[in-house]
Write a structure and sequence with these properties.
elongated
């Protein structure tokens, strides 16, 4: 009994060894077909899910836009305030501007104000029911409609709506990123980019960075750069450094990056603003923006630049403002140059007088 049993076991083991490799091949084929079936369906289903989600977001934003416009259209119109002839003339000039140019000008005005507001996510949640994505989108489109009109009441309403969005925290950030990523109306995307910076939504950094680096819409890139400048997060600083060091990029995109770095205490930002001022001799707006940014720092970092400007061959208005800045900062190193200016017979009287006043104010004798 033992012999046959042992022989049978040997035959069985030998047979199993011979079948092991073919079985492994069959198992591999089976696994391959199974994986092919899974991978054949998963990308398609994922793509369908992405398309459905994108469509849902577009419908949501469209509904919020229409709802906001309907409610604003139903509100009683307030009587126009009395305006002077100068204001009416300015309004006529503004009416000739295109919508894109007007939005760009608002972006530049936003750039002049430092981003001193603490992030919305650092504050506690507001009382009442939790905000929804639809509510945040409604407030955004109301804000957009308010900024498209004229008058103090509309701008006051726009500021109130920004405060409401700020109080919504992460929900507002999600709504604004949805508008920016949707690729719809360009005015909406520019406004969303600026608001993401104003509300300091850190999650928007990859989206803003991608627009600055890849988008063909220059005004949208400028708006994204203005938003990026106000984020003031550790991850945003290397991005702004890269933008500033690219001398071939748009001047206003680089200006936003330089301003953001300067506000973060980086010397590269201060030097970048001074460089943009110097290279903008033929661009009065760019030069004005760079000067205002340096003035807004309001500390000793701008003193070397201001000393150069007060004695440079530039527009006299910049020289007067540089002298005023040096006086306000009580800069003793400005005294030798001020003395030269106040005694120069070829200098303009306005510059001589301002230099003499500053010289006395700083203790010169």
């Amino acid at each position: 009994m033992t012999g046959p049993s042992l022989t049978a076991r040997r035959v069985s083991c030998s047979t199993m060894r011979r079948l092991r490799w073919p079985l492994a091949v069959v198992a591999a084929f089976a696994a391959g077909w199974a994986m092919a079936g899974v991978t054949g369906k998963t990308p398609a289903s994922r793509e369908a899910n992405r398309d459905a989600e994108a469509l849902r977001q577009q419908v949501t934003t469209l509904q919020a836009r229409l709802h906001a416009r309907e409610e604003i259209a139903g509100e009683p119109a307030s009587p126009p305030p009395a305006t002077s002839a100068a204001r009416r003339a300015a309004a006529r000039v503004d009416g000739t501007l295109t919508a894109a140019a007007a939005r760009e000008e608002r972006m530049l005005q936003d750039l002049r104000a430092p981003a001193a507001t603490p992030p919305a996510f650092a504050r506690g949640a507001p009382s009442g029911p939790p905000p929804t994505l639809e509510t945040a989108l409604d407030r955004f489109y109301r804000y957009l409609e308010a900024t498209r009109g004229e008058g103090r009441e509309r701008w006051q309403r726009a500021r109130e709506l920004v405060d409401e969005l700020r109080g919504m925290g992460e929900v507002a950030g999600k709504a604004l990123m949805q508008v920016l990523a949707a690729g719809g109306d360009s005015d909406e995307r520019r406004a969303a980019a600026r608001l993401l910076g104003s509300l300091q939504v850190p999650q928007s950094l990859p989206l803003l960075k991608d627009i600055i680096e890849r988008d063909d819409d220059l005004l949208l890139r400028r708006a994204a750069a203005a938003g990026l400048r106000q984020l003031q997060t550790p991850d945003s600083l290397p991005v702004m450094e890269h933008i500033l060091l690219n001398g071939a990029d748009d001047r206003f995109v680089r200006l936003s990056a330089a301003y953001g770095l300067a506000e973060a205490g980086r010397p590269l930002g201060v030097n970048g603003l001074a460089q943009i001022f110097n290279e903008s001799a033929a661009d009065g707006r760019g030069r004005e923006m760079a000067f205002r940014a340096l003035s807004s720092l309001n500390d000793e970092r701008s003193l070397p630049f201001m000393r150069q400007v007060m004695a440079a061959d530039v527009e006299p208005g910049f020289r007067l403002r540089a002298i005023q800045y040096l006086t306000a900062q009580r800069d003793p190193q400005a005294l030798p140059t001020l003395q030269v200016l106040m005694k120069s017979p070829t200098e303009q009287p306005s510059i001589r007088d301002a230099a003499a006043q500053a010289y006395r104010a700083l203790g010169g004798k």
